[in-house]
Each structure stands twice: as C-alpha cells, then as structure tokens.
User: What shape does this take?
Amino acid sequence: MANEAARNVGPVILLGAPGAGKGTQSKAIVAHYLVPQISTGDLLREHMRRGTDLGHKVRAAMDRGDLVADELMYDMVATRLREPDCRRGFILDGFPRTSRQAEWLDAFLKKEFFENSETLQPVVIHLDVDYTQLLLRLTGRRSCPTCGRIYNVHFQPPRYDELCDLDGSKLILRDDDREEVIRQRLEEYEMQTRPVLEYYRAQGRLVSVTASRAPEEVTAQIFGVIDSHVALQAGRGTARE
Ligand code: AMP
Assistant: This one.
C-alpha cells in the first residue's frame, strides 16, 4: 500500500453508461492508489447546491437527464485538474461524455500535464454492462446523504429498510435516478458518449472490462489494467517515480 501511494499513476479515465459502476469503482481506485476522484456529476451537483452561476445554468439540463453543454464543462474541469492533488494522477468519472470533450481533454492534458511534467499518459477503461442490468442498477440505486455510501435495493440492500448501515440516515433516490430520467440519460449515453468509446478505440487506447460481475471482481480487473499500464510506461522510460 505504501508503494501504491508513492508512485505516479497518471490520469485514469473511466467510461461507461450511467449505472456501469464508475462511482463505486472510482472509490476503490481512490482507496488503493490514493489519487482523487473527479466526478463531473458530483462537481455539478455541488455547484447547484451552492447556488453558483454555473449551478443555475446547468440545473434544467440535469433535471431532464440531458448532458450539460460542453462549453460549461471546460472551466470547471480545468480548475479542478489544476489542483495540486491531481499531480500524481486522478480518476475522471463522468468526463469526457462527448467526442468534443475527449478532444478538449487530450489538448488540455498535452498542454498542461505532459510538457515538462512527470505525468503518465492516461489509461482509458470502459466498464461494459448490458442494458437490462443497467436499468436494475439505476432504478435500485439509493445513497446516504450523510456519508455518501451507495446501496442498491435489488443487489446490495441496507440491513434495515431504507436506512444507512453506517449512520442510520434515511437513504435517498437521486432526482436523476427516477425512471423517466434514467431512460433519457441512457439515450444520451448511446447518442453522445458511445462515440467517445470509438474515439479512444480508434487510437488503440481503449481497454474494456466486463463490469456485470461482482464489484470486487471488476475492481481486481481494473487494478490489473492500471498496474500493467503503469509498468508498460515505466518500461518505456516515461515514468519517473
Ligand atoms: P453523473 O453523476 O455522472 O451520472 O452525471 C449526472 C448529470 O450531470 C448528467 O446526466 C449530466 O446532466 C451532467 N453531467 C455530468 N458530467 C457531464 C459531462 N461530462 N458533460 C455534460 N454533462 C455532464
């Protein structure tokens, strides 16, 4: 564990439909490699909660389950990635969601991370889950408003009713996890985010992981992908620990 903390991991880009397990797997990566999780959904929800200008601008799109306009995303993401805790690496969860965002991210990382820096090239991991499984995962998802722990009433229910096992808070259903919004989010994914997979696949950068399995099995696969990616770059002399 101490070794994991000491070394560079570089950017980890997690792609997958809503409900594919990006949030759950990001938390496992955070705990293992000690790099921060950058969830654009969480950042946007935080802006809405604080009532910022950006929060007001994105609320309508988010409530409908539509994607937020690309231009509104860039400043927010750039500001977060410039924080010092991202230097050894970070996990991007929920970004990029369109081909334009993927192109923007490549340009941003090239300009701000890879010139005169020790950052490794990104590893792009696709969490692949079939549609029926996604629907069950999304409609059953509940989270604890206090500690953020995620449950699923079908697969991982809390011990008591709809209460958090850790702190007893009443679990909540995210506004955009309502069924009609879920369908819209999955449609947006097919239309806008599938092309992002093609963008990375065409460059030979996409690694797909079968994510319908138990979360711990998926986590083990992801660690394997990240470790070999890091080792490969170290072998090429690009990793400076
Ligand atoms: P998530 O928590 O990642 O499922 O995101 C929730 C909502 O935030 C999405 O349905 C979008 O409305 C918005 N959102 C999050 N990330 C992005 C992004 N990269 N581009 C556009 N909209 C986003």
Summary: The longest helix spans residues 179-202. The mean pLDDT is 90. The pocket of adenosine monophosphate is lined by residues 18, 40-41, 44, 61-62, 65-68, 73, 94-95, 97, 101, 176, 185 (CB under 6 Å).
